[in-house]
UniProtKB/TrEMBL annotation:
Its main location: plastid. Keywords: Chloroplast, Membrane, Photosynthesis, Plastid, Repeat, Thylakoid, TPR repeat. It comes from Calliarthron tuberculosum. The keyword Cell cycle does not apply. It is found in: Plastid, Chloroplast thylakoid membrane. One of its GO terms (biological process) is photosynthesis. TPR repeats lie at residues 35-68, 35-68, 72-105, 72-105, 120-153. This is Photosystem I assembly protein Ycf3. Belongs to the Ycf3 family. PROSITE patterns: TPR (PS50005), TPR_REGION (PS50293). The gene is ycf3. It is a peripheral membrane protein. GO terms for cellular component: chloroplast thylakoid membrane.
Length: 169
């Protein structure tokens, strides 16, 4: 049974109905519609914490979806799942793939920075200060890019950059 037929909450049902209407109205190919259905089902599964099911749907969507912009969001969501499962290296790979297709993804830049910052903290706690500094510098680099794209977002990152002397304004 497709996920769209087993959504129990009102918002998911509403989204599913609207998405189905949009798919019927928009002039899209059968493949584009199929890819979107997999993507939609992946998002629904991901929102319910069903990460294995979400990944299956995202991977199926990637097999079909050709549009680089749409593929970037699929890759980004796969990165989110790996990051939430603590698989930071895999998450970084998917965030970078998403950015290769869509340079305008400040959320991917932010998430990369968060991972590098987290790794920097871990290295610092292990008294690996050279590694820690390098990781913090990488985090700063990605946060600066994210802030450039979305200046009103990432306030905590902006504060960290200021307090660590990585930006001055």
């Amino acid at each position: 049974m497709p996920r769209s037929q087993k959504n129990d909450n009102f918002i998911d049902k509403t989204f599913t109905v609207l998405a189905d209407l949009v798919l019927k109205v928009l002039p899209t190919t059968k493949e584009e519609k199929e890819a979107f259905c997999y993507y939609r089902d992946g998002m629904s599964a991901q929102s319910e914490g069903e990460y294995a099911e979400a990944l299956e749907n995202y991977y199926e969507a990637l097999k079909i979806e050709e549009d680089p912009y749409d593929r970037s969001y699929i890759l980004y969501n796969i990165g989110l799942i790996y990051a939430s499962n603590g698989e930071h290296i895999k998450a970084l790979e998917y965030y970078h793939q998403a950015l290769e297709l869509n340079k305008q993804l400040p959320q991917a830049l932010n998430n990369i920075a968060v991972i590098y910052h987290y790794q920097g903290i871990k290295a610092s706690k292990q008294d690996k200060f050279d590694i820690s500094k390098s990781l913090f510098d990488k985090a700063a680099e990605y946060w600066l890019q994210a802030i450039y794209l979305a200046p009103n977002n990432y306030i905590e990152a902006q504060n960290w950059l200021k307090t660590t002397g990585r930006i001055t304004n």
